[in-house]
Write a structure and sequence with these properties.
Residues 18-52 form the F-box domain. By secondary structure, the protein is mainly β. It folds into 2 domains: 15-47; 48-394, Neuraminidase, CATH 2.120.10. 13% of the residues lie in helices and 44% in strands. The strands form 6 sheets. It has a 5-stranded mixed β-sheet, covered by helices on one side. It has a 4-stranded antiparallel β-sheet with strand order 4-2-1-25, with no helix packed on it. A 4-stranded antiparallel β-sheet has the order 5-6-7-8, with no helix packed on it. Strand 22 and strand 23 form a beta hairpin. The N and C termini lie far apart (56 Å). 31% of the residues are buried.
Length: 396
């Protein structure tokens, strides 16, 4: 019997060495891949192949992480931690990735896409302000500037998006007069990174509006809240088709000009979360509303009201939290909340709105940052190993 087993093993086809190395490399951290690309030209070629980078990203996406950006002085430090799905995990430890220059007064984060973070910063050249987008890869520590936004306007708002069909990164920027803080946007332009021509293109927008709060991408569309009309007397949702670069609008179910609502991905549909205290959620909050878009053409929404249980008050206590998003596509649907500023202890909260349960996970590793530092929290972070030495390397 033993001899037969040995015979079967010996008759099995050997695993090609290249395939074996390929599988081993897929299990390494992104920074290790960056170093191994310097070993030789054959290794650099293999690790730069599209099939390898896509498989690496797909495998990383199967184990999503939380990404944290902590602002300190003129730098932004990036950390990651497991996106906990186990109820028996009361704490996780941060992993520091990299730091990038970030002016808290003139820089603005405008998107987290496929492992990259984009922010804009303003600089003064010959007495004029210029807005420059910067792409950062926290996993590899690389960053690079893109061409400045072509506008004479001072106020610029940008969104970093990804065309899943065309597999292209894009930046949508809009600008308005410097005489009004929340004026109607007058110029709309797009920069597509993988084109061979890194220049801004003006596009048409027939909906006078001013963007407010952050946006979210769902099935090829960017959704963000905006004030419409010149007197800013109404509020709506702007939808930007990333591939066709066309604008549309969706009326909000309820209009509250001063309430901070958060757009989320609810099982592949556009959702909005609203707390009873505006954007802030505390242990004293009674609950929240969840609006889900049913029909965009008819502007039809469904509303679900959730009331926190007594457990919520005991777990959250004095924490001041904000909605981060939802863990869509996992075995459980949970709303994730996080503080915006550091304190002695830093927690992330997972609320299961169907069961009415709440989990508090302590994030360890931010003790080196003392003081009232701003923290940005991103869901579903995955590592990308496409390494770009400069802007021209982004061109495929």
């Amino acid at each position: 019997m033993k001899s037969r087993r040995l015979q079967k093993v010996s008759e099995a086809e050997p695993i090609p060495v290249d395939d074996l190395i390929f599988e081993i490399l897929l299990r390494l951290p992104a920074k290790s891949i960056a170093r191994f690309r310097c070993v030789s030209k054959p290794w650099s070629s293999m690790l730069g192949r599209q099939d390898f980078t896509e498989m690496f990203f797909t495998r990383s996406s199967s184990l999503p992480k939380l990404l944290f950006s902590c602002q300190e002085d003129d730098d932004s430090h990036f950390f990651s931690a497991p996106q906990v799905q186990n109820e028996n995990s009361p704490l996780v430890t941060l992993k520091h990735h990299a730091k990038f220059p970030f002016d808290q007064y003139s820089s603005l984060i405008c998107g987290h896409v496929r492992g990259y973070v984009c922010h804009t910063h303003q600089r003064i050249v010959k007495g004029r302000k210029e807005t420059v987008p910067v792409i950062c890869n926290p996993s590899t520590g690389q960053s690079f500037e893109l061409p400045k936004v072509k506008t004479r306007r001072v106020n610029v708002r940008s969104f970093f998006v990804y065309d899943q069909i065309g597999k292209k990164f894009k930046i949508l920027s809009m600008s308005w007069s410097c005489y009004r803080d929340r004026g109607i946007t007058e110029e709309h332009q797009v920069l597509t990174l993988e084109t061979g021509n890194l220049s801004w293109r003006m596009i048409q927008c027939g909906i006078p509006h001013h963007p407010v709060f952050d946006g979210i991408c769902i099935d090829g569309c960017l959704y963000y809240q905006a004030m419409v009309e010149d007197d800013l007397g109404a509020s709506t949702i702007i939808c930007f088709d990333i591939r066709s670069e066309k604008f549309g609008s969706i009326r909000k179910a309820e209009v509250d000009l001063w309430r901070e609502e958060v757009v989320v991905n609810y099982k592949g549909k556009l959702g909005m979360l609203t707390a009873d205290l505006g954007g802030e959620v505390t242990g004293q909050s009674s609950g929240f509303d969840l609006w889900v878009l049913v029909d965009a053409e008819k502007h039809e929404w469904s509303k679900q009201v959730y009331v926190f249980s007594l457990l919520w008050k005991n777990v959250v206590a004095e924490s001041k939290l904000y909605f981060i998003g939802m863990t869509c596509g996992t075995s459980r649907d949970e709303i994730v909340l996080s503080p915006r500023y550091l304190s002695v202890f830093f927690y992330v909260f997972y609320y299961n709105f169907e069961r009415g349960t709440v989990r508090r996970v302590e994030i360890q590793g931010m003790g080196a940052f003392q003081g009232h530092h701003r923290v940005h929290t991103f869901l579903h972070h995955a590592e990308d190993v496409k390494l770009y030495a400069n802007v021209s390397d982004f061109i495929t």
